[in-house]
Amino acid sequence: MVEWITSTGLTDYHQAVAFMEARVAAIAADTADEAIWLVEHPPLYTAGTSARAGDLLDRRFPVHETGRGGQYTYHGPGQRIAYVMLDLNRRGRDIRAFVTGLENWVIDALAEFGIRGEIRDGRVGVWVARPDKPALPDGSPRDDKIAAIGIKLRKWISFHGISINVEPDLGHYAGIVPCGISGHGVTSLVDLGLPVGMDDLDVALRATFARHFPG
Questions:
Q1: Could you tell me if 151 and 160 are in contact, meaning their C-beta atoms sit under 8 angstroms apart?
Q2: Which are the catalytic amino acids?
Q3: Whole-angstrom Cα distance, residue 59 to residue 119?
Q4: pLDDT > 90: what percent of the chain?
Q5: Strand pairing report for 79-85 and 34-39
Q6: CA–CA separation, 1 vs 9, rounded Å?
Q7: Which of 87, 80, 70, 78 shows the shortest CA–CA distance to 159?
Q8: How far apart are CA 172 and CA 118, in angstroms?
Q9: Bridge partners of 204?
Q10: Contact 150, 68 (CB under 8 A)
């Protein structure tokens, strides 16, 4: 059983981490089910284990050091965070396959709205090609990031997870180099012209989850 939890309003980041750590311990002790927790946070930046100090351009929001993989990212209102607490002891101790599953889950959820999400070699997260925007100076086509992924494992139980931009203030990304990648931008469902709300995305996430994480 995977329990789905949806929090309303804005969830404090420290409280979210404390909840995840307690839930992971309970899953490891076999006293709680796996869980997917859907939240929104107030504006903040998080620094992953590979974050570079120079990628924090403007400390305009609180910065939280976190043990998840990845670099700097932004969380805030209008962005759906899906914290993924799953037991890889029984799902297979394959980190690469797990991350691929998360990426493909996001891609399938976006496809519910007619969006083609894609993976790019050497770049973390899910991207959307933007042929409507000018190419980069080297002539390569422009992509915008719509979803970020960063996980942590404890006793092969996952936590942290994914973030998908529904309608955040994209200007808030200007305080960081998102995930350490320059040149390309960020986008959201609404920025792409889709009248999609948080509830719509939640339905799509639930509808596509079992394709990649059955049982």
A1: yes
A2: 179
A3: 29
A4: 79
A5: antiparallel
A6: 26
A7: 87
A8: 23
A9: none
A10: yes
Q: How far apart are the first and last CA of the chain?
A: 7
The Cα 215–Cα 142 span in angstroms is: 38
Measured CA to CA, the distance from residue 184 to residue 163 in angstroms comes to 18
Do 137 and 121 contact (CB within 8 A), yes or no?
Answer: no
Query: Tokens at residue 104, please?
Result: 């493909």
Asked which of 6-10, 176-180, 191-195, 210-214 is least confident by mean pLDDT, the reply is 176-180
> Is the pLDDT assigned to residue 125 strictly greater than 80?
yes
Hey, which bits of 29-156 come out as E strands? 34-39, 44-47, 63-65, 72-75, 79-85, 118-120, 123-129, 143-154
Radius of gyration of the chain (CA): 17
Token pair 């504006």 is at which residue? 43
CA distances from 137 to 14, 111, 140 (A): 40, 30, 7
Q: Are 74 and 52 in contact (CB under 8 A)?
A: no
> Taking a C-beta distance cutoff of 8 angstroms, is the pair 84, 151 a contact?
yes
Tokens describing residue 2 = 């995977």
Residues 6+ apart with CB under 8 A from 91: 98, 213, 215
Angle between helices 95-111 and 198-212 (to 10 degrees): 130
- Which tens digits make up the pLDDT trace of 40-78? 999 999 998 888 889 999 999 999 998 887 889 999 999
